[in-house]
Amino acid sequence: MSIYMIRAKKIVTVSQSGTIEDGAMVIENEKILDVGTWENLSKQYPSIQVIEYADYVVTPSLVDCHTHLLEFAPTSLYPVTPETHFIAGKAILFHALSSGITALGEQICGHPLGDFRVEDYRKAIHGIPLNVSFATTSISIGFEKIAHFTSITQSTAVRKKDLIDPFLVKQIAKESDYPGENIFINATPANFTINEVPKAGEIIYSVEEMKGIVDIYHQLGKKIGAHVAGKEGIAMALAAGVDVLHHAHGITDEQIERASNLGVQIVATPIGGTHLTPNSPEEVLKFVNENIALSISTDAYLPPYPGVAWLPYADQLLKGPDQLMLIANPSMQLLKQNNYDENTILALLTNNPAIILGKENQFGRLEKGLDANFLVAEGIPGLEITEMEKIKKVYYRGKTVIARH
Ligand SMILES: [Zn+2]
């Protein structure tokens, strides 16, 4: 079937067209050929096959632009060995796909238990109906003795001074597809529970060191993102010219305004990921009010930050990308209460993270010429539904890759 049309109760396009009631979309050879009302398109394309989703909402599929599914997750979730690491990795990716996510921004940080090269990760995704971008990074983990790793040096720990070595930084930068958390301005708790990582939050770099790293990325024509939290670290990131702030927990109102003026993009992780309380719905509202094209991401797999009012968890178990809709829901609800349009709200999980990945001309909206990556669901993901079971179909490049009956 190279051409077909779907008809839905409504289509939330996240494009200039907004929401289309009784909508239709024509798909030809992996791409969206046309989107409009059923009334118009049924006349324009009278003889092609129609798939009826009269009770359902059709939206772009989700984009999670900050995850650790292939490197950290397999050893955290399963008793894998290097021989079986990527079997678990593929199961984890399938689980993400079944949650309505068809594009990921994966971090390759270097890991004591994963002696893989960046190309091993790239190879592991072959044949999986998911669009994966990789950010290659260095990482500083806040153990009692802070441990540093990089995507290039793999499982061998490095010294702080290696993290600013221009030769190594250049190698890391060259491999990076997009501005993920390329550097960790603060030592991270990673996916460890708080008591295991007492040094989480400690600032690793001087502003001068950071500027040197930022320059290397920019000279290669690449953007750089940073893992950062707290007023001091965020001030340094903005001063150093970092393009994307990941987490930005504890950002001040002035810094939100400054980030907006500088055109700095932000990836919020309301579940946790740093030493500080994660992004609240009120903070997300401030980002959107300041016209920042905000993305919400899971940083999966992570334990939820303990004692946070807007998270529904009573445990410290690792949470995966299947939680994206749930952790975004309080923020999306608050945006709705503040009269934001549902397309603007859904952009936090679709178009905006696609921009972070540099793939906004490929997916993230339902628009003529883009990949036919979309969901058939019982409501708007994250805003009206939070459970993966309410996503009935996942389409990737025009093909049904997940179907719940
Ligand atoms: Zn992360």
TrEMBL record:
Keywords: Hydrolase. Residues 57-401 form the Amidohydrolase-related domain. It comes from the Bacteria. GO terms for molecular function: hydrolase activity, acting on carbon-nitrogen (but not peptide) bonds. This is Amidohydrolase family protein. It comes from Psychrobacillus soli.
